[in-house]
Design goal:
Conjugative transposon protein TraK; five-stranded antiparallel β-sheet; 5 helices; transmembrane; alpha+beta; two-stranded antiparallel ribbon
Length: 204
Amino acid sequence: MLIKNLEQRIKINKIVSLGSIGFAFFIVIAGFFFAYRMIQDSRKSIYILDNGVPVLAKQTDVLLNRPVEYKAQIELFHRLFFTLAPDDSYIKENIQKSLYLIDDSGKKEYTNLREKGFYNQIVASSSMVSIHTDSISLDRENNKFQFFGKQMISRKSSVITRKLFTEGFFEDIIRSPNNPHGVLLKNWRIINNEELSNQSKNSY
């Protein structure tokens, strides 16, 4: 009886020991797993300085935000290219910034407008040119975009509203300070820029 009791106790102790070792091993593995997840999550946390104050932000999957960045790039290019004031320096600065976002098709259109005297007319007539974006459509399969908006030319005596319909292609490139979205617009052209209205300003 004594020998049997000893054998049973040894078996029980062995089972308890093996169970304790298995449980401890599970705890260690679980600890490593959760620590790894915490490190991964912490790497997704970034801080943005807002007037010298660090603000916590979370990184998201780049691919999820890409369509938003494509549209932001397209809107930014058109705003820079078509927002003009009667100031040669201002025009050149805006055009230069816009040309970082596009291939040589942008430079060709700029040269075309300059040769037609468009920018000289803006300066001579003290006009302000701005645009309003109606919509931007993306064809992700062909990397093609279409921009729909309106161009407003405000002169001393009138406000001219023109349709602005353009299209082109987009391509992913390396991000840079001059191209923070990492998107290059290509083969861009103006499809329709017809006049929609010409309203006289009230003069008192």
